[in-house]
Design brief:
It is built from ten helices and three strands; from the N terminus they run H-E-H-H-E-E-H-H-H-H-H-H-H. With about 220 residues, it is mostly helical.
Length: about 220
């Protein structure tokens, strides 16, 4: 029996938009892996919808670069080459760096305390979590910085690119020692934001998101 799911929709969101958001989350998490063929009939049954919004959701996902529409071959989750991924990580680092820069300029004492609390929770729980669970907690940290930056357009563009590289970004979390490195890098980012140092915050976040040195070598070696 196919497990049915309801499509959660925000106010004013169409059924296709809600379905697109649900599939986008599955792609970013790796539930729907790169190269996987998406079956229109199966997805319609799983979400208890007709096939018309499924087709529209596929078109929306293709417009965001998350799937490829291959005619008779069907719809496939887009797989990215190493070179494309590295270029996207570079852009991701700059977008997140700008979020951190704006956060350093616009942080309030209350928001700083909230950011520090998120970080402390990661320090306390992170080493005991699975890499997947830690990655989800890590997203909360980054979302907090988007919010503090107070630029919704920038936040939307950053999330859109994050969703495109999400499954690959998760892979980095599984590398030995990555959790501790992440906590150290987050600490540096918070210190820069707390001191209202936009340049330092940008640089710290860019370093955090850019694959350099051994991390880059390990990433390419594990890429398949």
């Amino acid at each position: 029996m196919v497990e049915q799911k309801n499509v959660n929709r925000a106010a004013g969101m169409s059924l296709a938009d809600g379905l697109k958001k649900a599939l986008e989350k599955e792609i970013a998490s790796g539930t729907l892996e790169p190269g996987k063929r998406l079956d229109e009939k199966e997805i319609a049954a799983r979400f208890d919808v007709s096939r018309t919004p499924v087709r529209e959701a596929f078109r929306l996902l293709a417009a965001d670069g998350l799937v490829d529409l291959n005619g008779r071959q069907g719809v496939m989750v887009r797989a990215l080459s190493v070179n494309t991924l590295l270029e996207m990580f570079q852009v991701m680092a700059e977008l997140e760096g700008l979020c951190a820069r704006l956060a350093a300029r616009r942080i309030s004492p209350e928001k700083l305390q909230q950011l520090q609390q998120i970080h402390q929770q990661m320090v306390d729980q992170g080493p005991a979590l699975s890499p997947a669970a830690f990655y989800d907690m890590n997203l909360t940290f980054h979302e907090a910085i988007y919010s503090i930056a107070r630029n919704e357009f920038l936040a939307e563009e950053t999330r859109a690119l994050r969703n495109r590289v999400g499954v690959y970004r998760r892979r980095v979390t599984f590398h030995p020692g990555r959790v501790m490195k992440t906590l150290e890098e987050h600490s540096e980012i918070i210190q820069s934001i707390a001191h209202n140092d936009g340049d330092a915050a940008h640089a710290a976040m860019r370093k955090h998101l850019t694959l350099l040195g051994d991390d880059l070598v390990d990433f390419i070696a594990g890429f398949s």
